[in-house]
Amino acid sequence: MEALGNVATAMSFPFRLLHLRAPGRRHLRPRVCFCVGKDDDVTNLFAGPRQIKLEGQNVDILEESFSPSDRRLEMSNTDIWKLFNDAQQNILYLNKQRLAAVEELKKLQREKELLLERIEQLEAGKQTNIVEGTVTKPVLLSSFSELLLRIDSMVLSGMIGPREASDFRKKVMDSKDNIHDVFHDIQQKTDMELLSELHQFSEKTMRKALHIVHICSEMEPVVSFGSLASYVTGLSCALQRKGNLVEVILPKYANMDLDAIQGLRKTEAEFDSYFSGCWHKNRVWIGVAGGIGLTLIEPLYHSSFFNRDRIYGYSDDFERFTYFSRASMDYLVKSGKQPDILHIHNWETAIIGPLFWDIFVHQGLGGTRVLFTCHDLSSQGGIVYSNKVVMMSSILSKERIIHSLSHGLEPTLAIHKEKLLIAPYGFDGTKWDPSRDKLLPANYSADDIGGKAVCKVALRQRLGFSGHSSAIVGCIYSGVSDINVDNLKPAIQHALREGVQFVFMGLKAPVRSTTVQALQDELKDVNMRLINKYDEALLHLILAGSDIILCSSFDDPLLQIPLKAIKYGSSPISLNIRNGGARQFEGHDFRSISRKEGFRQSEWHDFASMMSTQYIISTFGDMSLCQALDEIKNDPSSWTWRIKDGMSKDFSWDAECVDIHWAAYTFTKNL
Predict the structure, then answer these.
(1) Which three-class secondary structure state does DSSP give residue 48?
(2) Can you list the alpha helix ranges (DSSP code H) found in 128-216?
(3) Which of 10, 83, 514, 602 could form a disulfide linkage to 35, CB 3.0–4.6 angstroms apart?
(4) What whole-number distance in Å separates Cα of residue 377 and Cα of residue 34?
(5) Whole-model pTM above 0.85?
(6) Pathway membership of this protein (predicted)?
(7) Is 47 helix (H, G, I), strand (E, B) or coil?
């Protein structure tokens, strides 16, 4: 700024112009002009000798006095103003940049303060729970400490030993940050309940994901005939939700629902499989069904094997599924898949057992193990050549199956008894849950069952029932079932006189049950309805709006009605609809008992082999329809406790069923 001031002063006063002259040469015009002030002193730009280097030459600085009248100015006023204006613009620009930098600095400072404030809030959030403006105890720290103290309590009470307690403490410490997400309401749980959760938590931390391949003949909803379809889909989805990789291989039937397969496409490559002394070409289709990877095998030469109206029921069924079983194994080898578990099902794929150990274990599948599931031992196959055998039943024990339902396989089963496991059926917990069922007019749960009353009103309106009733009883049966009127009619007549309303619905549409229709025509009661057309939404409403669900059996592999009824707060009452009422259970005659429709708990001791079985038998196995109606009327508090207790249980595929299968898989894999 001082230099600019001197420039302005020099415009009104005489000044000296500096000339640059090289020794012995002509004068050179300088590239820079230096101005002097009133005292005629050059501004302090040269402190040393008056010689500068210009364009690589040494030049002398000469001073020559002159006045404006003696010589034309070498720098005009216009040039001076231009320099002044340029300098001023540069200063303004620099000042603007400085202000912008200051604002940016302030902004960064504010962001830093906000970040520090947010960090403080997060730290506070880890220590406290903010609920409606009030601060509760430090939740995370409290859960962690409470859990460790409860482990100590279990040791002191003798529930667990010091070594197991040490293992629990280590796993809890390793998962300290996630404890609150895993263990809820610790203080409200008993030591036994908490110990069960600790065991599950311990198992999950030790689990290693497995690759499981099902080779089977059915999978819901792609192709469904019996209980196998829902079992394969339900178990596969539950296993995959737990972090495992699950795939399914099916034949490509002509009558399967291809619309249920996402991204279905034909692969370019074909593969050969061996059958009846020759190699035959097969085409492969791939897609996804219910989140599960699906492979369809289509024979080219034997195209008629699965290009039929039905899945089963042909004279060459054995040849058809033998071809599919061998083709599936050839496909696994040629595709390079090396699953941990090969899961085969029923007689249709039981032959894979001997094929695997005789041929394919030596073709890259040395680390694979075989698990065989049979839903009916009448299929009689796969037991000897499988590492583990799972029998599906919700109520039968291992001893009962071996001695009463072995269909001539008792000696074989006795030898391989240690292989045999019993697993219960389940249902899709994402679909059948009243707390999130979108088909219900109101949702409810074990903690708040108020919505069930709303569903009951909606059901009455839907069925055209008028007035109030003491209870609603639903009866869900398959289209192939037939009701024994002689045993059912007296119970219904008694209930109707007590103001109970009944609704019957079959699940194989269209339902044409002449027996039920004849019963309705005979009773001619306004409080009885027969639904001849299957309705998915109505089925959900019947389960939610009914107090009691009459079931053909507690062991219901196809529909799982008893388990769904419990989840929806409707008590299942078993009446053997087809063969003589409740005096019989799945073909097994029980000794005469005092209650015409009930079962004594003492008759069930051999069945209670699983948690679900124990609960069903202890809670509903000794209850008749008349007893249930009497409890609703005279002891409503006990009834409410009963249904809420049932609703809190988990009978889905994700519960006991998947746990038993996981234990079988891990045991088999470690052989």
Answers:
(1) coil
(2) 139-156, 162-174, 179-182, 191-206
(3) 10
(4) 112
(5) no
(6) Glycan biosynthesis; starch biosynthesis
(7) coil
Q: Are 355 and 325 in contact (CB under 8 A)?
A: yes
Residue 229 CA to its chain's centroid (Å): 20
Reported as a single tens digit per residue, the pLDDT across 485-535 is 666 778 888 888 888 999 988 876 444 456 677 777 777 788 888 888 888
**DSSP state string for 506-565:** ESSSSP--HHHHHHHHHH--TTEEEE-S--HHHHHHHHHH-SEEEES-S--TTT-HHHHH
Alpha-carbon dihedral sign for residues 56, 61, 64, 68: positive
Omega of the bond leading into 636 within 30 degrees of 0 (cis): no
299: closest CA among 271, 260, 277? 271
- 408: helix, strand or coil: coil
Question: pLDDT above 70 covers what percent of the chain?
Answer: 73
With cut-offs at 50, 70 and 90, classify the pLDDT of residue 264.
Answer: very high
User: What pLDDT, on a 0 to 100 scale, did the predictor assign at position 624?
Assistant: 87
Q: Round to whole Å and give the CA distance between 232 and 522.
A: 42
Rounded Cα distance, 624 and 612, in Å? 20
Task: Report the b/e string of 61-98 with b at 16+ CB within 10 A.
Answer: beeeeeeeeeeeeeeeeeebeeeeeeeeeeeeeeeeee
Q: What gap in Å lies between CA 622 and CA 574, rounded to an integer?
A: 10
Which of 28, 31, 33 has its CA nearest to residue 77?
Answer: 33
pLDDT, residue 191, reads 83
Cα–chain center distance at 79: 80
579: CB partners within 8 A, 6+ apart:
484, 587
Amino acid letter for position 539: L
Cβ 662 vs Cβ 207: under 8 Å: yes
Q: Which helix (H) or strand (E) holds 638?
A: helix 636-647
| Residue 124 CB neighbour total at 10 angstroms | 12
**Cα radius of gyration rounded to whole Å, the chain:** 43
- The DSSP secondary-structure symbol of 257 reads -
492/473 Cα distance (integer angstroms) = 10
